Amino acid sequence: MKKINRRKFLENSALLGGAMFLPACATAPKKLGANEKMNVALIGVGGIGKLSIAKLRNAKRARFAAFCDVDDVSAAPGYNEFPKVPRFTDFRRMLDKMDKEIDGVVISTPDHMHYPISAWALKMGKHVYCQKPLTRTIWEARELNKIANETGLITQMGNQGHTFDGWRVIKEWYDAGILGKIENIYSWTDRPINFWKQGLLSRPKAEPIPATLDYKSWLGVAPYAPYSSEVIPFNWRGFRDYGTGAGGDMACHVLDVSYSAFELGLPSKVSGNSTEYTKWSWPQECTAHLEFDNPRGVDGKIRLHWYDGGRKPKDVKRVEQSFIDDPRLKNGTLIVGTKETVFTNEYGMKPMIFPRKRMVELKRSGALPQPTLPRSKFDGNPQEEWVEACYTNTPPPANFNYASTFTEMSLLMLVPIFEKGVLEYDAKNMRFLNNASANKHLYSLYDYNKSFIA
After folding, report:
1. In angstroms, rounded to a whole number, what is the distance separating the alpha carbons of residues 241 and 449?
2. Pairwise CA distance, residues 298 & 294, whole Å
3. Confidence check: pLDDT of 7 > 60
4. Alpha-carbon distance 265 to 166, whole Å?
């Protein structure tokens, strides 16, 4: 590549936990005219990429400039709907060949490729929308945000819940004194039980690689492993080389309400436990406890408790256990204040002061405040929100400054899987103060795939 040296870029990247090689932007971002459409390339057309097609197909200010997907079968619906859009299996070749024809990229790949693709696109002068979690590791999240700030491009993490009103409503309730000081936050998800496999998994047996799959490009920066249909196209989330398990997946939805409403930032203490895991697989069930130094909490502390894999909280103030244990309640959050308790679903939609009769009382009395925070015009459509932000050159609410810290908070919940006891975290210096061995979990733990950068 004449504009960016692949080998230097990847060899010095977070995949090695070393210093990042930062070439100058090859192309300055084009200023979008009021009457022209933004040329968007999709990296990931099948899977969750289908959602981006649905959100952008009718967008007034966007057009599909290129498609990139490693799996022809998964991408077929998008290919068939837009047969004239150029297709690629390698994002590097796409950005090389169509550099001047692409204004921004939407990244919908497995977690392990979020950082290298996002960083590469930013250094090529492209605005970036990346699905959650922003990155696979904490170091990658910080480094990617640094690159985004250096380029000045418009970025956004895919989190539709952040476009909804819920976290704004809860913040307004807190600011109006309805909730009192925050004591505890409880969040849970049933995943991975009903969606993908995690737990005591061994490496799946090797299978022939389908002719419709560019497996080398799918592996990307991950270490080589034989192809298996037990991993691709969906169960990769449960495997540590590719995904971040339930914590990295659903936490970026479920925890957004609390993180945003109370401006949690990063925790000072982390602890937890899990069921067994293997070298390859995340555990089936996890619990994590995070403590934040936050003036909105009782005695300046807010405590957040996370449960996944079917685990749920117990003895929550003002809430009957039968409500929490209802099997239909697969995901949710309970926020306990000194005055009231709030319940909301995984996307923060329609938050309710619990129990319902208390919500009715507050409404009838006129105690609930009027909206004071600006709302998103793109309810449930963060992709189009990002496109609009590229035109106005105004960072959207879920930009990488927000997303990198939020992702770091979510990924910190995974560390107690491997390290026991209460871990004291120095967020400023990105290190654990009382457990040196825990620090390795802040970085990538595998060697990069040399064949990918050859």
Report:
1. 11
2. 9
3. no
4. 19
Quote the CA–CA distance of 196 and 198 in Å, as a whole number.
7
Query: d(Cα 117, Cα 69) in Å, to the nearest integer?
Result: 13
SS3 11: helix
From residue 308, alpha-carbon distances to 77, 277, 344 in Å are 33, 14, 16
CB 114 within 8 A of CB 143: no
Phi, psi torsion values for 286, nearest 5 degrees? -140, 150
Judge residue 370's burial from the number of C-beta atoms within 10 Å of its C-beta, 0-12 exposed, 13-18 middle, 19 or more buried. exposed
Enter the tokens of residue 27: 């192309």
Closest CA to 169 of 335, 3, 17: 335
CA distance 299 to 111: 37
- Tell me which DSSP letter residue 211 carries: T
**pTM of the predicted protein model:** 0.93
What is residue 401's DSSP assignment? H
Judged by DSSP in three states, 85 sits in: coil
pLDDT at 368: 97
Give the mean model confidence (pLDDT) for residues 16-32.
52
In angstroms, how far is the first alpha carbon of the chain from the final one?
A: 11
> What tokens appear for 64 in the block?
């599909």
Q: Please identify which residue in the block is written with the tokens 């307004």.
A: 172
Amino acid at 243: G
Please give the C-alpha separations between residue 123 and each of 66, 136, 220, 306, in angstroms, as whole numbers.
Answer: 18, 19, 18, 36
Task: Give 200's DSSP letter.
Answer: S
- In contact, 364 and 108? CB cutoff 8 Å: no
Instruction: Give the residue-averaged pLDDT of 373-402.
Output: 95
Q: What is the DSSP string of 308-363?
A: ETT----S-TT--HHHHH-TT--EEEEEEESS-EEEE-TT--S-EEESHHHHHHHH
Instruction: State yes or no: pLDDT of 54 exceeds 90.
Output: yes
Enter the tokens of residue 358.
């208390």
Report which DSSP code applies to 124: T
